[in-house]
Phosphatase NudJ (Rhodoferax antarcticus ANT.BR), 170 residues
Amino acid sequence: MTERWKPSATVAAIIEHQGKFLLVEEHTPEGLRLNNPAGHLDEGESLLHGCAREALEETMHLFNPEYLVGVYMSRFHRPAIADQAAQDVTYLRFAFGGTLGALQPARSLDAGIVRTLWLSPDEIRASAALHRSPLVGRCMEDCLRGQRFPLALLHTDPSVTGLPSGPIAP
């Protein structure tokens, strides 16, 4: 039996305020890169919970997802480096727009996150060579075009979270 191919599910927070977008600068094997606050969906959490958690871990701010910007796929290939095997990963990204909440000063930034920064669309476009993924710019452009889908499109069955049925909450 061959192993079934599965994309890696990720969530991203596309946070805009006063014409600028919140990005994180993070350490990667390729060096410092810019990314949306984003990360892997954890077992047992909904897409909304995962996005709010990742935004909190990477920015130290609460985040309330209010709409779906889009669903994206991209493929990343990293050649073998020294003692690390080559990687070939397809990411399935769910990007959410919403409201950035209060700073949680008792928290610290996730390991690997150097800092958060607010950049204009032109600054983000000009820094494309430093983006962790081509989806950083694509999600911003879709958000700028007004692409917004209702969260009602999403459903997480209680079997995923172990929680009783009810309204979806972040």
In short: The chain has a mean pLDDT of 93.
